Amino acid sequence: MSRPSVSIVGLPSSGKTTFLAALWHLLTENDIDTQLRLKDIQAGNNAYLTGIANRWRQALIQERTQQTGNQNVQINLTNREGDQDLQVNFPDVAGETYRDMWENRTCSPDIVEMLCSESVLLFVNADTIKQPKWVVDEVAQMQQMGLPLAEGEDIDWAPHMSPTQVQVVELLQLLTETPFDIGPRQLTILLSAWDRVAAEGLSPSEYLEQRLPLLHQYILSNQQTWTFSVSGLSAQGGVYDDPERPDQATDEAERLRESYCRVWCLRLVGHAAIWLGLVVSIPSLNVTPVMTLAR
Amino acid sequence: MSSEPQTETQTCANPECKVSESGRCLEGLSLDKCPTFGRKPTAAEQTVIEAEDQPAERLVNLRSGTQLQIGDASDLLGHYHARLVAILGPRDAGKTSLIASVFDLFQEGSVEEFSFAGSKTLHAFELACHDSRTASRRTVPVQHRTGHGDVKFYHLDIATKSEPERFTLLLADRAGEDYRTAADDLSQAGPFPEVVRADTVTILIDGGRLLDNTTRHNTRNETKLMIRALAEGSFLQRTPHVIFALTKLDLVQTSDLKDRVFADFDKVVEGARPILTPHVESIDAIHIAAAPSNADTARGTGVAALIKSWSCSIARPTLVETPLKPSRRAILGLQMPSQVAGAVS
After folding, report:
1. A106 vs B contacts (CB less than 8 Å)
2. Which chain B residues are closer than 8 Å to A140 by Cβ?
3. Buried (b) or exposed (e) across A86-109, using 16+ Cβ within 10 A?
4. How many CB pairs under 8 A join A and B?
5. What global pTM score does this model have?
6. ipTM of the assembly?
7. Which of A46, B173, B319, B333 is 20 to 30 A from A259 in CA distance terms?
């Protein structure tokens, strides 16, 4: 059995665990035709996958992976004909780990091993991208609107203030350097929470170019290192309830609980991963075609 | 009746305490007052103790992302397509603004034919950009000054649409005061390896200071002295490109004195030509507004032209083979019989 592995990379709250939950639901529920199917449940760590899929079905926000600990998930898959098997490793690493790599410039040896996969799924929450903003633009805007300038104390720079695209570019750069360097890799950029930004009418590649231009330039300029594709993904389908704040339950989450599968299927766009030279869509239901950046 | 020592009570919940051996409380309290004496740790305390006993996980240190030291920069210069840019100018001329602006322009997309391809100094660039960003909570953009000390480098890989190969820019950052020393007293000037090795020397002339009657003449004079120091101090051994950049164009353009400033700038450049021409590949002049203080002038005006100039490599003369000097070691000075004149075969 082939045993490719996929490193799931992304800053905190970028949708990594939600994607895994939706994926596990899709594979175990078996009510939607997918190109790859669950071969068996012997690979292990099913309790974790079942737990996150349960929360997903209840439209509840996932626990932070930082609290549950990093999980190395293995899933045994087979193709439709059942004659080609593969075992996929998905290390579900807390976003805080990637934040530490950017801010504190450190990483634990365990994580190094988990990030040396030939395929990388990079999650970026399309709805919470921190854009660079400049003082002169803001001042001009406030003056145009006749609003007073907010007087406050100057703040020193800290790494967490940097725009999303700078942090993500650095993560990808670090993956090409010692101790993560394993040569050229496959890169799939998943713009999560796509349902929240789809109304803008941009394709995922256009969205990347316009909202994350530094990342867009970086991957276009490094195609010898990264064979990439970009897709929009909505594995959540809406705003979930926070179990720690039961008083703030929303109607939207309740609607999702009633019809979780339908909503999710309708809103899922794109494909997920490429490995071993086989293009594998997870899931490949009634999705829009794979969107690839113009090269 | 003999009294047995009450060893079972000589315990303490504080693992650091040696009361069982010394009979004394670690905190210096009488035993009846000590809150941890005479009992075992609670479950919560035990958890803390165990956590503290765990060896700290060894972490892998990653590249720092800060400015490069001279050794790291030297390694990158071994790359055929690397260009070293020395940026010279007095304090507040806009060096950091310019460096930050180069990076910030790529945050919004490609800059004409140039695209961002990578950087080993993203933390340093972000720090340089911070005071012009809203995250700083400033209401007026400012730039922090480069501190005294050794030269350090910002790194940027740039891809071009016209060339298949990308190139590396190393932007040298040194305090303006250090360069001024060279103009004041060449004998006291530092070695300035970044200037000696530079592919391009960019000399900044502060447009704001040329606008001000009290600083105008000194600015011109300081620049002239710096030019002479470059020429006479053997700093231009590699015949680099030289670019004069008039900074703070946004201030100049909105002033009634703009024609005077442009004339002053042109005069400095023309005055430099006869001095520098024997030592340099080319001399160019550019007007820039790297970090305008208002929204009327586009951020990074002129910076694309500057990047284009920086991207040019120096045309090197054909290598001339230098004859080897005879070795001082006798054994290496020996010649093979066939090399001896008149040798008989």
Report:
1. 59-62
2. 294-295
3. bbbbbbbbbbbbbbbbbbebebbe
4. 131
5. 0.79
6. 0.82
7. A46
